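Exam revision sheet. Question 4 asks you to relate a sequence to its structure. Input first:
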Amino acid sequence: MNLIDQIKSKFSGDITEAIDQKGDALIYIKRESLKKVMEFLKQDAEFDFDVLMDLFAVDYLHWEEKASRFEIVYNLYSSTKNHRLFVKVSVPEKDPVVDSLVGVWPAANWFEREVWDMFGVSFKGHPDLRRILMYEQFQGHALRKDYRYNKRQPLIGPVN
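Answer key, structure tokens:
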């Protein structure tokens, strides 16, 4: 049984789609199941996804075929089993919040802060959700498709 089939057998009600794309395992999970599924994928010896390689967001503002505006993508890797899994979660524009995974993988801290800073997707339970790339007075989220690239921002002077 391949990796996707193993995961589907454990979480059939939480997975909305599973794809083997040119050797890359990819699953779409329900937003409310994120923390439960990810904790299991890390802790279970059968999967042992001990490394969160990356976490990023995608803004699908002008994609009519997408039901939700945002998608959070998690890139997991198991150093003991030598397998990789991409996990995607759809996030609606009206409620852009997902559970924080800092308690599962501490590396998620900076990744989640970057996604919040650039896209405005919030992470419930994050220990220190604040800007990481832009300055605190920056208004908006610079990587959103509807952010005006020529928007005038508040000027800040030297910090004393």
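Marking note for examiners. The mean pLDDT is 93.
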